[in-house]
Design goal:
alpha+beta, 4 domains, 15 strands, 16% strand, elongated, disordered C terminus
């Protein structure tokens, strides 16, 4: 004869029952006469369309989990519901697993060339603070502690996000499902300084951007260490991401065609891409390869990435101290970094190419759709033409074609506009360029050399008042009067 139980619903406690053995016959392993145990019941919506529920009735939490108190029974029911919603057994018992071990498991399954680098970042910033916490117990507050500590130590927003991606991805990984980790979302975190709030470079820097480009090029070109010079020139002239440049190998370079092949496993977008390189970079690559005696499978750059960053920071500090670059005091916490080269080229060429066009075809921003990839991808030669315009600005040279078109717009039946939105027309008279406001009042009188470069000039305001050698710069025109 089987044992009989009487189920007593506990008042004001949903789905919690206290059972009491009433039969004199007992089954081995069950409660003794007069002893009590707790059972739970609940239902889960199984089909959204039909609104059908799946019922779980009188599950014995005392037997399965050793529950002896009402408070433990309530907690056990909540956990059982969570387990079922995750597709687990109601009485699933997760094994103890630290975040440190979880990251190791995640990276062992992830196929990426960045595994070693990401693990080192984790060990530096995450492990000392929360690495020992169980994945079942870790909370967003724990991760927030990491954010605040990194901000305190001066880490940029992008660096913080990069550090957090690995542990958050580990917690959300399918390989940790059996450990029932808490799944966290980076969107729940708060940051003191977000990169998206970072002012544009023309807002942060008072120096004319063309002057900035030229002093950067000049300073980098004067570096004695060939390897560091080469690295920084590629980031400046080819506007490639630093992590990608660091992984260039000899086999990626075609000095005859003057191109570098960015392999799919080195790019942020995981898309292979060829990009052109300048004469300076081509010559330096050849010299560097011969000097180091590199083989086809060897990496071009041997230093740690931090060495190149330190060299660039040294250059910027020197330029600021010698007043060649001026950062507005309001934005002193946003110094010019190597990634800003990518914004610099888009800003300098914005009168001819849209920011979106430069982003997709020169900066390798990820395309939004397959149609973008099909119809908006520039040819290698077109990329070279665009970059050549940028390189001429870096070198401080003036393109004769664009200058002649600018200085004599009447030849092209065009009207130009300056920063103040005044209509401007000009004419060439010998070696002098005369500019007029829309109402034919004189705007400027500039003497030019044979390369169409302004030598000296006079500027007139709207009232006809003369200012000799004004510092006014017209970005739309590509030259200044002085």
């Amino acid at each position: 004869m089987a044992s009989r139980f009487k189920f007593h619903k506990i008042e004001n406690q949903e789905g919690i029952y206290r059972t009491e053995l009433k039969s004199e016959f007992k089954i081995k392993g069950e409660v003794q006469e007069g002893e009590e145990e707790y059972r739970i019941s609940f239902k889960i919506l199984g089909d959204e369309d039909t609104k059908k529920y799946k019922y779980y009735k009188y599950l014995n939490v005392s037997k399965e989990l050793g529950v002896k108190k009402l408070s433990d029974a309530i907690s056990a029911r909540k956990q059982a519901i969570k387990n079922v919603k995750k597709g687990l057994d109601p009485f699933f018992k997760p094994k103890a697993l630290s975040l440190d071990k979880a990251v190791e498991i995640y990276l062992s399954h992830r196929k990426s060339t960045n595994n070693k680098k990401d693990y080192n970042i984790y060990n530096k910033h995450i492990k000392p603070l929360i690495g020992g916490i169980w994945v079942q117990r870790i909370t967003i507050d724990d991760v927030q502690t990491v954010v605040e500590n990194m901000e305190k130590n001066g880490s940029a927003f992008a660096s913080i996000k990069r550090a957090l991606v690995t542990p958050i991805s580990a917690l959300n990984s399918k390989h940790l499902k059996n450990y029932n980790p808490n799944k966290l979302d980076l969107k729940e975190l708060t940051y003191a300084n977000r990169e998206k709030d970072k002012p544009s470079i023309d807002e942060r820097i008072s120096t004319d951007l063309k002057s900035l480009a030229r002093v950067l090029y000049s300073s980098i070109s004067s570096i004695e260490d060939i390897e560091k010079k080469l690295y920084l020139l590629i980031t400046l002239m080819c506007v490639r991401r630093t992590g990608e440049v660091n992984l260039i190998s000899y086999s990626d370079i075609d000095n005859n065609d003057k191109t570098i092949n960015a392999r799919y496993d080195t790019t942020k977008t995981s898309i292979r891409e060829m990009y052109p390189i300048s004469e300076e970079i081509t010559s330096l690559l050849q010299l560097h390869i011969e000097k180091k005696g590199l083989d086809k499978n060897d990496s071009i750059f041997s230093y740690k990435q931090r060495a190149y960053s330190d060299e660039f920071n040294r250059i910027m500090n020197d330029l600021i101290e010698t007043n060649q670059v001026a950062i507005k005091s309001l934005y002193s916490k946003y110094p010019y970094g190597q990634h800003d080269h990518r914004t610099l080229i888009a800003t300098l060429l914005n009168s001819k190419y849209s920011e979106d066009f430069i982003g997709k075809n020169i900066l390798s921003h990820k395309k939004s759709s397959s149609s973008d990839r099909k119809y908006s991808k520039a040819t290698l030669q077109f990329k070279r033409d665009i970059l050549s315009e940028y390189w001429e600005i870096l070198r401080g040279k003036v393109d004769k074609t664009s200058s002649s078109k600018l200085l004599n717009p009447a030849m092209h039946n065009e009207t130009y506009y300056n920063d103040d939105k005044y209509s401007l027309k000009s004419e060439i008279n010998g070696n002098t360029v005369l500019g007029y406001y829309e109402d034919t009042k004189p705007m400027f009188n500039i003497e030019i050399n044979e390369d169409f470069k302004p030598v000296k000039g006079v500027w007139y305001d709207e009232n006809g008042v003369e200012n000799i050698c004004s510092n006014a710069t017209y970005r739309k025109f590509g030259f200044s009067i002085c």
